[in-house]
């Protein structure tokens, strides 16, 4: 007698949602929309004649019977994957995710964290291009564009994921040579500037009520990451964005000599073309950025 099987796509959606505890994460894993996962689960519930999840607002939880069902079918999916691998057919097709982001952000925040994303998504190749140009000036289309914001661009869906403030930072060795007990002591130091961000030091000094302060010297670099590296090397004092120097502060490569004032800064945001907003892989990377940003 031919065995009676439930719809396999619906079963796959249920297994992912039950294992991950989230329709949204299941959709990202299966490269579909959360709505598609919900539809498959409802189809399976209708086929079985019983609910699989307790739905409470945006949260879902397996019913006791569904939990037992998941424990029974979960190993079968693993056996199917192993059998397919032994047969010589790739389990998943490799995908490329195209990301465009500012150079300093990429160097100091994104690259040190990419290994974590790659560990969970070995089938995904992340292609990163650096640029500070406006969205409309980009010559190529990208899956995700990272820029400051929040801004509104026609044809793009925007979501913020990382906030920061700016305040002076320097190396511990610099403080040993010439202490900074108060902002007025900056008169004995070299201030490090970035040509694309000329207002950072003037705005901070004005906030500290030292608009007329004249430092011992000044150096200007054309890239922000060079300015920060000069601070790490003990050349002078830079205005540090808290998100981008967090790892250096934690490792002791940089210190913040003053508690404030802190200059507010624009958030980092993801901009995704509207036609790609339902792509599961793009949503998965976007959600990962948001989790990493919340922990920074």
Automatic annotation (TrEMBL):
Keywords: DNA-binding, Transcription, Transcription regulation. Residues 6-63 form the HTH lysR-type domain. Belongs to the LysR transcriptional regulatory family. It holds the Pfam family HTH_1. InterPro entries: LysR-type_TF_proteobact-type, LysR_HTH_N, LysR_subst-bd, WH-like_DNA-bd_sf, WH_DNA-bd_sf. This is LysR family transcriptional regulator. The keyword Transcription applies.
